[in-house]
Amino acid sequence: MVKAIFFDIDGTLVSFRTHAVPQSARDALKELRARGVKTFIATGRPKQLMMEAAGDLEFDGYITLNGVHCFTAGNRDIYRSRIPEDDVERLIAYSHSHPETPFVFVHDDTWFITRVDETVREVAALIEIDIPPVRPAEYARGKEIMQIMGYFPEKDDGEMFSRTLKHCTPMRWYPLFADIIAAGNSKSHGIDKVLEYYGISLEDTMAFGDGGNDIPMLSHVNIGVAMGNASEKVQAAADYVTSSVDEDGIANALRRFGLIGG
Fold it and tell me: Is Cell membrane there in the keyword field (predicted)?
């Protein structure tokens, strides 16, 4: 029996084409809640950007920043983590020697970026978000940095995470950048924290996702559903592959498993 369902935002709930939640998904979420199924967001977005994308929809709780910050619909914290200060200091030094590489620092429900280039603009347009204010990397000192976004290719991950961000791990859902969080965190870890808080068994869970950062949760929950627009690697981690976000993928899968009518 499915008692809790976790939904990624970009490419899952929200279309990359229309930048909106399909009406079929809106109707499905409303029906799930009417049937007593708890619904949760599980996103890489920080809180403020999550609310911009799905703030008009009702959920029982939220997993943001790839599992780093989990909280209830009433804004009660369930779990939060931060990037170690020594990693932040090493990244500040790295930014001085590599000024061409933009980094975003997320803290205190706000964020800033060290540099804006075409890659930054491309990603902002992809998910229809504003570009954060530009500040020097030193501005991160003394703040609770919960996530960093680094605009560097995956081939640089080895050096970055062995020499600079030694206690962190990358979560990639798009090739142009990486969401970076403290090691040990993931959407699956956030799910465990939320389930513990609500007293729900992992056996009674389902999740929908489309990106590389969704693989941990799709392989962790009882029923992992990959969107039709997901890559082959993401689809391989899921128990079921539905149609794309623009082809009513969420509603179709929920009907397939008998969780909504129609």
Answer: no
